[in-house]
Amino acid sequence: MGNYKTVFPLELEKDLVDYVLHLETLMYGLTTNDVRNLAYQLAVRNGLPNSFNKDKEKAGKDWLLSFMKRHPAFNPKTTQDAMIQCTVCLQWAHTKCAGTDEDTDDFICDFCA
């Protein structure tokens, strides 16, 4: 796509898409952060050269946008069951119910706030 070279070979990226879509069928909607973390882990474990953020251990937002353009079946904006975990009590909540941005790394639920 454009001037960007994809990080993953076609088969590996297809496996990532299939895995993400499979999790959605199990009612475990992934946030964009989850997918960016998965992409980072997949690249590192396969020794693929990348420009992902090593401090945050996640793929960049530009990678995610490009990924979503290549795979329109994955669209976190239409995933109604996206979940987020409280960093204090570790309980899960729907992002919509929690009224939070799904890209946050430090969500604290109303009970722990």
TrEMBL record:
PROSITE patterns the UniProt entry points to: HTH_CENPB
Superkingdom field: Eukaryota
Keyword Nucleotide-binding (UniProt): no
Name of one Pfam family that matches: HTH_Tnp_Tc5
Keyword rRNA processing: no
Ranges where the HTH CENPB-type domain occurs: 1-77
Keywords: DNA-binding
Gene3D superfamilies: Zinc/RING finger domain, C3HC4 (zinc finger) (3.30.40.10)
Listed name of the protein: Uncharacterized protein LOC106814888
Organism: Priapulus caudatus (Priapulid worm)
